[in-house]
Structures are given as structure tokens and as C-alpha cells.
Amino acid sequence: MDEVTIQRLMTLSQLSLDGEAKEKISRDLDAIIGFIEIMDQVDTEGVEPLAHAVDLDQPLREDRAVVDEDRDVFQSIAPKTADGFYLVPKVLDQR
Amino acid sequence: MTGSWEPVVGIEVHVQLATRSKIFSSTSVEFGAEPNTRANLIDLAMPGALPVLNEEVVSMAVKFGLAIDAEIAETCVFDRKNYFYPDLPKGYQISQFESPIVGRGQLPVFLEDGSVRDIGITRAHLEEDAGKSVHDRFAESTGIDLNRAGTPLLEIVTEPDMRSAAEAAACFKQLHSLVSWLGICDGNLAEGSMRCDANVSVRPVGDKTFGERTEIKNINSFRFVERALNYEIERQIDILEHGGEVVRETRQYDAGRDMTFSMRSKELSDDYRYFPDPDLLPLRLSTAFLDYVRSTMPELPQQKLERFVEDFTLVRPVAVRLTRDHDIAKFYETTVALGADPQITANWLLGEVAAALNREEKGYDDVPVSPQQLADLMKRIEDKTLSSSLAKEVFEGMWSSDKSVDEIIEDRGLRQLSDVDELRSLVESVINEHPEQVEQVRGGATKVIGYLVGQVMKTSQGKADPKKVNDLLRRLLNI
Amino acid sequence: MKPFVGVRELRTDLQAKKYSAVELTQFYLDRIADLNDRINCFITVDTERCLERAAVADRQLASSHPQPLCGIPIAHKDLFCTAGVRTTCASNMLKSFIAPYDATVVKQISDAGAISLGKTNMDEFAMGSSNETSYFGGVSNPWNMKRVPGGSSGGAVASVASGMTPLATGSDTGGSIRQPASLCGVTGLKPTYGRVSRFGMIAFASSLDQGGPIAHSADDVYELLAAMEGHDPQDSTSARVKETVLPTRERRYVIGYPESLLEGLDERIAERIQQARRQFEALGHKIEVIELPYIDAAVAAYYVLSSAEASTNLARYDGVRYGHRTETSEDLLDMYCRSRTEGFGLEVKRRILTGTYSLSVGYFDAYYLKAQKIRRLVRDGFLAAFESVDLILAPVTPTTAFEIGSLRSDPVEMYKQDLYTIPVSLAGLPALSLPCGFIDGLPVGMQLIGPHFGEGDVLAGGMAFQRETDWHEQHPSLDEPSAP
To answer: By the CB < 8 Å criterion, does C363 face chain A?
Structure first.
């Protein structure tokens, strides 16, 4: 796994590793991908992908609205809030 | 068309569906609530929380599909679109990528000149809206409000079938009218209930291939769609005429400066890693469900238009205007059903009523005059109790009170003067008072008779029937 | 009072007032206090609240209709959300996370009257086969403290095996109930996908995760399943099926025996499975040799699919609404990156990166889609087998419990531990893991696999076996530290 790929995977996953940790995980990923490639030995020509093992249909919920009054409970476990907002480091308005 | 260049435009419209609850949770959908008071476990993406699809969202999408004569997918799938952004609590948006609920369809778009163009609809798919980031409220931080997160959206994508900014604006307007008509969107542009993105490119007239395109994001009014596109078309032509190249990018329209400018990409990646959301199962739409939705469909504008032309012998342009919007069509039909003459009613709705609504910035859903009142007024015009000028006065009276037509006529003594002797004495006194004009008329200047009619109308305070006055004058003056 | 007592006896004793629910709860709390330091089964013990609830249970027991599990203690795997008690997923990311709600399973079990003692240790976010990836430290195998209990439900299984609780919940994605049950000599069931609600069970891989019961016997597993199962309108993947019913008369089953699977297996384990086969035959069941195709590729497909789902299921941990947020950050992206990098352990990072890779542009077809196709082949292989057999008898693990640390540096070898459990997970089938012998003082387990929603027959098969054997009644001696 080359440097560019691992960097790209880390960006997409919002993870950052440097130095030895990064080298170690690169080696692990190489081993895992090597192992995964055993799949190539299976002929899957004409086979439909399967997302769930049990054949079930999506159920539908009746359109009934509920207003909870749980904001304080939800925000009591949040790292940072003010005036009912969740706070994150300033994002430049990109819109 | 601009000079030797032809613009090519396609639009994508996000329609907020008018459900009570969100697409995957039972939280009430409301605009303007206190921050994060309309966000439950699921909307906040709490660990362990799971989505369940709202039935009404599905019916609304199907209604739209049926209205544009599109293929409705027997089975469709919800996908995850993965990217990190603070107003996207799960780190992915649930959307439909490979299998949209609504496939290819057609939308007839009425243009300003009265002609109709069929615009191809590529697809329409369901997805959830994101929350909002508030940048100006806190000094060091951005505030996140997730009330809007999970609001159901139908994203409608058109073919690049439009050839001018005006056509694109007309198409957006037509979609607005259709989704309002179907009752699947409240149509409130100011609150963001419909948001339009436009893909635009230009090419030399006669070319078959498309030029490089740009995407203009989030244009939220009919007027701005036209302005933004006109600006962008000019900009692209200018680049190309100076030997430059259009860069494929996303642009933003600034209404204040009336220009578009390049946006940095909003998301942190360009690889969304779409895959079927394993928390949801394939959505299969049974024939029974489709039949049920079909049975709840209102009569479509096009069908109504044809019926108006047929049943009420309206000319097509009038019928078009009466079916452009659900509320005006409903008002018209109710009034006519109460016994009013279809022609007179059409003229009044599109004339006096439209002007008065315009003056007060009201819509046809908020007319201060009831269909019953209007129908009664139409009848008094038809039976000649009121001249058109008196009718206008009665109309004004009805606008500001809920009195009946006859009450207003009585109160104000507006009944048309129909007593023959009274009219005759009025006419005779005008003849006596204007010997000079009478002489001119007798000498062949028949135009002057209009002046004399005017004088009679004036002394009768408008209550005389001008046609009868004219006849009587001619008879008494032997012309 | 003594440990290792089954549900029926506990129920009879409680109703006969031989001891009260408070006394029983205190007995287990004392045992946890004695043993947990050595085994590390529990991340959180809910001492105060469980005694309060036991007092309520005692009042219920005095009424005419106590609930089926009234007053009986249970431990929840620490990925089931519990309002008021922290739910950590054994991760630094959630080390002080207090869920604002109860998982459906937690609620159902509480409604059935059971008393939650606390939350059990596990591999971080259920990713692991040895319980070594827990932020709160590894769990020891009660049969040998130097060995792993298996994973990811290592704490749950070890707490039952050591008699700290008679019942425990676990979750099984690729073997996380069955493999540790086998390594610790207890009985555990992975139900059919859709049988037990996933609402409030913190997701690892949504299309595979299934909560299930762990206990001393198939009888007790059935008792707990009855409390956990059922359709949940809050989980779209929850099945609308009738509850599990045991066959009213003893049935003679046709049991499929995938002989070729045993070829590469440790001989002594294969011998235990053959012995179990002979016991089933002696009980009048018919054995039919079957083939299960694509087993090797199934493990690879499982790692692709489960990692892909995990990579996006874990995107919600961004330090904004709950969970770990880094102390200092330069900007938003830095905050995300640091919070996640600090919050997740190595194995979780490996899986997120593997999953992200397999979903990326250019790799999607070769990995993710290919894995889904193999999933179909694997499932269809089982469905074909169930055309002619009622149950399948199979091994659970390739070895007995291995030494702590021995596989830690080799993720691929660790993944191969789940060779026998993974195909069943891909196929969404129910499977019971139950003890069938010992090798060098370490338990060996076997699986009874059934068709979709065939839990009744799977459990009946296990009960019949346990009536004839006493492997499940063997318990580790914990009075003194085990010999080196």
C-alpha cells in the first residue's frame, strides 16, 4: 500500500497516524488485502450481490409527528454547547 | 440565444416534502423552532439509533412520478453517501444513488409566450436534508442546529433540455406549481422549501456536443434563477470569445452583486463511497400501493386545462392562466359551480381579482372575497343589475367587508337606473343644457354623442346603463 | 446460595422465598467483587441500582403474577445502550458516554423482571476474537487465566462461565457469541438475523449484527431468548415472525455433517465433534454428510463487508454531539482527526481503513461487490443444504482458547479464528454454540445451525444433547489462581 493511498484513506476516514504507527498499519493493511484477495478464486459471474441474508422488505412508518423535550438531556452528554447549539471550531463560511 | 452561442441548461431541484414528521424519524418537521428542539435520537445519530422510512414520503414521491408520467421503480434502495461535515450527524447522508424511486418522465413547461415545451425529467430520488451551521453567532465557534437534519427531500433532476435562462426559470416555476398542486410541498421559497441548482454550458449554435459546464448552487427564487443563469451564460461566452476555457466547478450566485463566483468544495472529499445502507431494506412498491396513491391524485393541471377549454369554452391562453396554480383553479371552479357565468368569471378572476391581490401581495389561497360572493356579483352583472363600473365598486365593497352583493347594492344605492321615464328626463335635461354639442351631432359629428352619454352618466352617478342612454339619445335626436 | 444455578431453579427458589431477589443479587455482587479483578469481565457494575431493582422484584414476586425472569440477575454486553449507566463499547471514544435511552433488548429484559448487574467487557466496538482490543483491558478465560476468553463477547461469556451471573446478553457479528462460548464452556445462541432488535445496540456491521443470549444451558438460553426476541418497529431489519416455539414432541432430526470442514481441524477437536455426532445418532437422529461450499472465501468476504459497514457506522463519532473530543485543535478538521485518532484503538482503525478502501472508487467492484456476491453463494449453499437436513452440526473454533498475546500482532491469523462461525453469519442463520468436551482442561464447543427462524429446533437439539451429557455442567475452579 503506497503512501498516497494510505494518506487518502486516512483523510477519507478522518484519522491521522504518523511514523511507526503509520508504517505498522500500512503493513497490516497489506496483509489484510492480501488475505482478502482469496475472493478472486471464486467465480461470481452472473451472481447477484446480496445485501441482507434474510429476504425482507423495508417496512413503512405512519407519518405521525412527535415533539420531544429532550434537548437538555441530549446536550448534557455533548462536549460543547451554547444557547442550544452544538459548538465546533469555527468553520469558514464556504457557501 | 445569445449571438452565435447557444446556452444548454439542466436543473436539479430539491423539494422539501410537506410531511408531518422526518423521513427516517418521528420528529416533527417545523421551520423556525429553537435550535435542536426538533432533533431526536435518530436525527442526532446517537449510537444504536436506527432509521425507519416514513410512508408519506414514499406516497409523495410516487405522486410526483405519476404526475410526470414517469416509471416508478418496483424496487428501490437507499444508499449512504459518506462525507464528514458538522451538519451531517451520521457522517453520511441517506440518499438514493443507483436506484431512484422515480425514473424518466416528462414535464410540459409553459413559457411566457404561451407556448409549451416538454422538458425531460431524468430522475427523482429521496434523501434526507442536512442541519444548519451558524457562523456569525459565536466568536470562536460555529454553532450546529440539527432541526432540519432528516427533513425529507425529493431531488428532481432534469435533462439538459433548456436553451435559455428564461426557460430554466419557467421550468423551476412549473415544478413549483406542480409540487404545490400535488400538495407534496408547501412551495415556500423564502423558507427554503425548494432549492434550485443549475448546470449550465454554452456551445456554438449548431454544435451537437455540449461545452464544459459549471454548476450554480442554491438559487432560491424564480427571479434569481433567471438572473444567475444570464450572468453565468454571459460569463462563459465572454471566456470563450476571448479564447479561454470554462472550468468545471461549482459556483454560487450572489444576488446582491448580481454575479456568480467560484465556491470551494463544501465537503472534505470527492469520494462519497456510496453503498446500500445496511440499516434499511429494499423498498418494494406493490401494485396495490401504487393504485392507492393513484386514487388520491388530484386532477392534474394539464387535464384540468383541457376540461376547462371543453366544458367552459374558454380560449386556451385563458385556460392556461386559470390552471397555472391550484388555488386559482379551485377558486374558479367553485365560483362557476355556484352558477356564475364561466366567461365573465374568468375575466374577473384574471382581471379585477388578480389586480387587487397583486396590490395587496396576496395569493389565490387568501382572497378576501368568497367564491359565493363573487358568484353573486357575476350574476348581477349577467342580469344587468350592475354595469361593469358599478360592479367594480361593489367588488371593492366586498373586498373590505363580508356583506353580500345585494346588501352593498342597497347600502350604496348602486342599482342600475332602469326606470325608462327617469332615464328619459335625465337625457332630455342634458340635451337642453348642451345646445352646442347637440347642434354638432345633428350636423353629422356623431362622435360627439359619446360626450353627451358621458354627461348623462355623470348626472346619474354612473347608475344609468350607457348602452340604453346611447339608444335614447339617438332616438330623441333623430339620428 | 451457590453459583452456576439455572433459571428454572432460581425462579422456583425465588417464588418459594428460599431467598429474596435482593439476597440473590447481593450474592452475585459479592462474587463479582471477589473475582472481577482477576478476570475483568465487567466494565461497570451497577451496584446501587441493581439492589433497588431487586427490592422492586421482591414486591413483584409477592404478587400473583411475577414476570418470567423476575428477580434473576443478568449482565449486558457494553454495547447495549442503558439509560443512566455508561455504555462504552470498550472504547476510549465512549468511555464516559451515558446513553439517553435504553436499547429495545435492555427494555424487554427489564420488563421481563431481570435485574441488570452491570455492563460486560468486550473487544472495542465488538471488533476482535480475543477480547484483547478492549480499552478497559483484556479478559481472562476462567478456565486458564493466561488464555483469552474469545471475543468479542468475552466479558459476557466469562462472567457466565465464572458464575458471576446466570445470564448475559451478547452480540454476534461473525462469531462473537459462539466463539467465546465455545472457548469458555458455556451455551450461547446467535439468533436469525432480524429475530432480536438492533435498536440501541451500538452498530458494528448492521447487516450482520445480532444480539443473543448466553447462559449455562440451552434451557436457559431459551428462557432469555423468549425475553429478548420479537418484532421492533424501531428497527427496519427486524422480522415480523412468531416467537420461538419449542417442538411439543421430541423430534428425530436429520442432521447435516460437513465432514470436509473437519479435515483441516485440530484432530482432538475433530474427535470431540465426531463423538457428539455419535451421541446424536445414539439419540435416534440421522446424520447426513453434506458439503458447505466457499468457506475460505467467506472469511475474506466477511472482513470486506463488515469493515465496509463499520467504516461508515463509526463516522458518527466525530466529537461533536457525544463521546471523546480532543483537548485542543487548530480547526474543525484537526478536531475530527485528533478526536477520532485518540478515541479509536488500533484494531478499530484497521477496520475503518480496510472498509474505506473497499468502498473507494476503483476498488468497490473488486472488493465490496465481489464480497456481496460471495455472500449470496454462501447463503445459497446453506439454503440448499437445508432442503435435505433439519440442522447442521459443525465445529465452532479451530483451536481451544489460545494464550493471551499470541495472535495479537497478526490480524489475519486472528481473523481466521472465525472460520467456522462466519459463514453462518453471512447466511443470517441461527446457531447454538454448546460445550462438547475438554482438551487439556480447556472447553471445546460445537455449533448446531438451523434454517432461518429455526431457533426452536436448534434449541431442542441442544437440549436433547445436554440431557445426555454434562459438559455444560462443568465449571472452572476459581478458588485459587490457576496454575501457570
So the answer is: no
Q: Residue C471 has which C-alpha cell?
A: 459438559
Q: What is the DSSP string of B79-113?
A: EEEE---TT-TTSEEEE-SSS-SB--EEEEEE-TT
DSSP strand E in C88-202: where? 115-120, 167-172, 187-190
- Domain with A36, as residue range(s), is 3-40
DSSP letters for B335-401: HHHTT--HHHHHHHIIIIIHHHHHHTT--TTS-SS-HHHHHHHHHHHHTTSS-HHHHHHHHHHHHHS
CATH number at residue C76: 3.90.1300.10
Average pLDDT estimate for B460-477: 81
Residue C78 lies in a domain: yes
Q: C98, C105, C104: which is closest to C84 by C-alpha?
A: C98
CA distances from B264 to A89, A95, B131, B253 (A): 19, 8, 20, 13
B89/C321 CB distance under 8 A: yes
Percent of chain B's residues with pLDDT above 90: 63
Task: Tell me the residue range of the domain where C32 lies.
Answer: 7-251+457-473
Work out how many domains chain A is built from and give that number: 1
Catalytic positions of C, written as ranges: 77, 152, 176
- What's the distance, CA C283 to chain centroid? 28
Mutate to test the interface with A, among C357, C425, C453 (most CBs of A within 10 A): C357
Top CATH class of B421-476 equals: mainly alpha
Q: Which residues of B touch C233 (CB under 8 A)?
A: 52
**A87: β partners:** B143
Q: Which of C297, C337, C411 sits opposite A39 (nearest CB)?
A: C297
Q: Give the pLDDT score at B289.
A: 95
Radius of gyration of chain A (CA): 23
Residue B420: which pLDDT band, with cuts at 50, 70 and 90?
confident
Judge whether B153 and B15 are in contact, CB under 8 Å. Answer: yes
C401 located within any domain: no
Cα-based distances in Å from B337 to B206, B315, B340, B371: 51, 19, 7, 9
Q: What are the pLDDT digits (tens) for B22-61?
A: 999 999 999 899 999 999 999 999 999 999 999 999 999 9
Residue C67 lies in a domain: yes
Q: Does C236 sit within 8 Å of A58, measured CB to CB?
A: yes
Picking from C296, C376, C429, the nearest residue to A38 by CB comes out as C296
The answer to whether position A46 is within a domain reads no
Residue A94 backbone zone (phi > 0: left; psi -120 to 50: alpha; other: beta): alpha
Which residue is listed with cell 436448534? Answer: C458
Residue that the C-alpha cell 478476570 belongs to: C39
Provide the pLDDT for residue B404: 83
**C293: alpha, beta or left? (left if phi > 0; alpha if psi -120 to 50):** beta
Judge whether C308 and A73 are in contact, CB under 8 Å: no
Contact check, Cβ <8 Å, B90/C316: yes
Residue A7 lies in a domain: yes
Quote the CA–CA distance of B319 and B419 in Å, as a whole number: 39
- The whole-angstrom separation of Cα B32 and Cα B39 is 13
pLDDT < 50: residue spans in chain C: 482-484
Question: Residue B317's pLDDT is what?
Answer: 87
Is the Cβ pair B135, A14 closer than 8 Å?
no
Q: Which amino acid is at C320?
A: V
Residue type, C464: A
- Residue A71 located in a structural domain: no
ipTM of the complex: 0.96
Q: In terms of CA atoms, which chain C residue is nearest residue B25? A: C234
DSSP characters for B136-162? Answer: SS-SSEEEEE-SSTT-EEEEEEE-S-B
User: C356 at the A interface (CB within 8 A)?
Assistant: yes
Number of domains in chain C: 1
Count of residues making up chain A: 95
Q: Quick check: is A13 in a domain?
A: yes
Give the pLDDT confidence of C409-436 residue by residue, as tens digits: 888 888 888 999 999 999 999 999 999 9
